[in-house]
Amino acid sequence: MPDKKRTASGVFGGLLGLVGLSAAAGVLITATVTPAIALTGAAATSAITMFDNLPSVLDIDKLMLPTTIYAKDANTGTDIELATFYDQNRAPVNFDEVNPVVYDAILSSEDPRFYQHGGVDLIGTSRALLQNVQGSGETQGGSSISQQYVKNVLIQRCERDAVATDELTEAEVLANCWTEATTASGNDGIERKLQEMRYAIALEQKYSKNDILLGYLNISNFGGRTYGIEAAARYYFGVSAKDLSVSQAATLAGVVQNPNTYRIDQPGGSIFDGDGVAYNKAPDGLIDDVRPGQLAALDTLLSDGTITQEQYLAAADAYTSTKGRQLYVLSRMFDDGKITRDQYVAAAIEPIAPVITPATTGCTTAGGSAYFCQYVRDIIENDPAFGATPEEREKALKRGGLSIYTTLDLRVQLAAEAAMVENVPSSVDFMKLGSTIVSIESTSGRILAIAQNTQFSEDAAAAADPNKSALVFAGDSTYGSSGGFNPGSTFKLFTLIDWLEKGHSVNETLNGQVRVIKRLTNSCPGDWVNTEGTRVGNFGGGGGYTGTPMQFTAQSLNSGFFAMAEQLDLCDIEKVATKMGVTNARNGQPVEVDNQFSIIGSSNVSPIAMAGAYATVANNGIYCQPKAIDRVVDSDGVEMTPPARACTQVIDPTVAATAAYALEGVMQRGGTGSQANPYDGTPLIGKTGTHETYHTWMIESSTKVTTAAWVGNYDGLNDVFDPFGGLRYILARQTQEAANAAYGGDAFPEPDSNLTRVVLRDLPSVIGMSVDQATATLDAAGFSVNVGDPVDSAEAAGIVAAQNPAAGRVGGGTVVTINPSNGQGIAVPDVNGKQLDKAISDLRAAGFGNVQPGTCTEDEAAGVQGKATGTSPGAGTVVNRNSAITVNYSRMKCT
Question: Which of 293, 459, 663, 801 supports an S-S bond with 793, CB 3.0-4.6 Å?
Fold first, then answer.
């Protein structure tokens, strides 16, 4: 411990000894070290030993740099900045990108002998020692630029590794980094200062003076989250570092000396004194509450008549503490001959006039592309390509200095944004209205556009505002924080694909009438299916019809797809959805296709996933995982491996071509998606979808680009069809039209002949069978059965007496109507040629109770009694025994 009773001369002698010792050792210890070790030769020797044992090599870490997300302007090929993310706002520059006056200002005020010393300034440190010991003025640090650079490197290293704890917030941990690196009292402070000096000397042996000076300017804090001279110039004055004026350069050189005291962007900085008291004009017009000597330079200029009192007041009117520091910098520059007296006076009387230009962080700066930006951000924060842990990925985003080159195509994006703004409000009073558009390049999975009706905001306070949201409706719970939406009939794609994969034809005839589905097979373990079935109707009503999958697809007939699923395995439909990239948006698990409702889209899925599935059809059965990032470049300009995304053949090309053939009908006139067709000559496939009137979809695709548009209630509680149900067509049409203009589109491949064949089957005869036996026989043959009303027949009651159509070759899926006998039928006997009374008698004997003579025809040969010429109904006809039978006859005279 230092001897408190030492005399001033003793202290001074000890200091001189320390200076000599330090010079011999190649290092100089500053005033903060002196009280502890600068007393005796033994103490000095101990200091040398301590110094020699300290580490001598300091590796310069990468600067913590903002990560920037870019989109490419396809028209010019230039990369356009969408957003930046940072903990420290910094834009490193090269040496020649800084106005030389900045170097003059820094060196004159901080280290005028920078280019002469070897890392530690002997003269400056000695002066600081003497002033600190004598107590004259403020405590002097005496650190060289090299030492300050070392200090900043160590601070940044600490901040880079800072992690919040249960006891300390992240802000408190970061504050401790600064305190520990700048405190030079006690034994720890002594060792820290010695280490700083040793590092500075080693630094000078490894790097050039210009590299150290530039490194210092690029790493230094200039207040708040502003780091580096370029970011400071932009933030405080709205100019680049190369364009700073003498006054501005001197101001920033002053700020860097004590950033949060001299910053000029907010109250609480330099506009207030250390006690938080604002500087005010005194009654005499001069500045009150100014510490002695703070504006001495202005006082001198005023007293010698160089400036007027008005100029004085204007210069000192605001940011007084910073003005005082700036004047010190200017005076040092003038004394060193770096500026002329005219430049000195002009800068001195120029008021500090900041042009605060905040550097924004986050996706808000991306405007209408904010939701695409947020989707990319979620990828960075969740994909292992950017780090093994969430903490590593967060640091990569805000400190890694990455350049993220995205797939966004502004030609398509701007069209999507315009369609959204023109047609869908950001909110309405009676429901939580949501809408999104997403376009994907079919051949690669590259996401070209994401637009949304709400205003992007991550402000938690804005969460209750229905106009604002941070959810990306197009995404899922991992990328976008959205739970997805029920896809409705757009989900029928997977039944169509499974139908074709099982070898069925799109021209096979099925019973697409609304009816109870008696059987649904599901082989997935643990799943269930209501084998009793439910009578599920068609959207908008209608009883359905007997038709083909071609017709069912074009008209989006629920009952038709139920008929298709009746011949399939629901588990296989689920597997088709999975291999085409569609999973549950809430948990990433396979969608559950386990009952009749799930066939028409009752699971929550994401618009991006659905667009990717339809793109698979357009891409000849090749599924490309949707991707939003093309390239990633690190802060050194080295290409990194972007998140893995693959393209895989998941559907046979013949199946894809035939599915496209069916889906083309949706987009043609008369199809449910025709309103979304821009009719610009580009071949399109597509599908509409609705779910319980809460969600509406339109997905359409060329061979190049797939667009999905969704409009719905994002909490699923209110009807959206009045007045928003038709907007899906407009959104998809306008966006797809822009995509077609940018990418074009080819004709889809011809469908497979086997999968488009007309299917005929052998229809057996079931006449004479019981109704149950006939139904089972027809069902086993693949026909639907309709039991009609009983008919008159000689068969016993309940035996099938008629079927329609009759046995033979008919279309598969034909509905066969069978009619059971009522047991009341009798075949009319043939009485032709018999005498009239005998004919009537025979008919009555056969069981007919209502037999009457009919029409008489005169014939000499028939005689007086007359002969029967026929009956009505005719002989052999089976009629009810109570039916009237008329006997026609001939007689010599019809009287």
Answer: 801
Between 566 and 185, name the one with better pLDDT.
Answer: 566
Residue 805: cis peptide before it, omega within 30 degrees of 0:
yes
Angle CA 558–505–754, to nearest 5: 165
Say whether 628 sits in a helix, a strand or coil: coil
Count helices and strands (H / E) in the chain. Answer: 29, 26
Beta bridge partners of residue 705, listed in sequence order: 441
| 82 residue type, one letter | L
Question: Taking residues 486-495, what's their average pLDDT?
Answer: 96
Q: What percent of the chain has pLDDT over 70?
A: 85
Is 80 exceeded by the pLDDT of residue 416?
A: yes
86: amino acid identity, one letter: Y
DSSP string, 40-98: SHHHHHHHHHHHHTS------PPP-B-EEEEEE-TTT--EEEEEEE-SSB-----GGGS
3-state secondary structure of 449: strand
The two structure tokens encoding residue 783 = 């026909």
Q: State pTM to two decimals.
A: 0.79
Q: Using the Cα atoms of residue 423, residue 427, residue 432 and residue 438 in order, give the sign of their dihedral.
A: positive
Predicted confidence (pLDDT) per residue in 460-470, tens digit: 555 678 899 99
> 20-24, 150-154, 183-187: which range is least confident on average?
20-24
pLDDT at residue 326 above 90? yes
Between CA 15 and CA 350 the distance in angstroms is 42
pLDDT per residue as tens digits for the range 572-606: 999 999 999 999 999 999 999 988 889 999 899 99
Q: Beta strand pairing status for 510-513 and 544-547? A: antiparallel
Highest average pLDDT, of 514-518, 703-707, 854-858, comes from: 703-707
* Best CA proximity match to 628, nearest among 410, 477, 450, 400: 450
Helix (H) or strand (E) holding 409: strand 403-409
Q: How many CB atoms lie within 10 A of CB 844?
A: 13
CB 348 within 8 A of CB 73: no
- From the number of C-beta atoms within 10 Å of its C-beta (0-12, 13-18, 19+), residue 49 rates as exposed
CB 620 within 8 A of CB 418: no
854 SS3 class? strand
Burial of residue 570 (CB within 10 Å: 0-12, 13-18, 19+) is: buried
From residue 728, alpha-carbon distances to 154, 699, 736 in Å are 56, 9, 12
Give me the mean pLDDT over the 46-63 stretch. 72
DSSP for 766-822, please give it: -TTSBHHHHHHHHHHTT-EEEE---B--SSPTTBEEEEESPSEEEETTPEEEEEEB-
In this structure, the chain runs to a length of 895
Tokens representing residue 113 in the block: 């002998």
Cβ density class 651-675: b for 16+ within 10 Å, e for less: bbebbbbbbbbbbbbbbeeebbbbe
DSSP class of residue 719?
-
Angle between helices 246-255 and 100-110 (to 10 degrees): 40
- On the question of pLDDT at 133 being above 60, the answer is no
State the average pLDDT over residues 93-102: 96
Half-sphere exposure of 248 (CA within 13 A, CB side): 23
Interatomic CA distance for residues 346 and 348, integer angstroms: 6
> Is 879 or 405 the better-scoring residue by pLDDT?
405
Q: Are 490 and 728 in contact (CB under 8 A)?
A: no
Residue 130: exposure state from Cβ atoms within 10 A (0-12, 13-18, ≥19): middle
pLDDT tens for residues 387-411? 999 999 999 999 999 999 999 999 9
Q: Residue 358: its pLDDT value, please?
A: 86
For tokens 């790493």, what's the residue? 219
The answer to whether 552 and 505 are in contact (CB under 8 A) is no
- Residue 530 CA to residue 595 CA, distance in Å, equals 6
327: tokens are 């004047």
Q: Please say if the pLDDT value at position 280 is more than 70.
A: no
Among residues 808, 734, 812, 289, the alpha carbon closest in space to that of 507 is found at 812
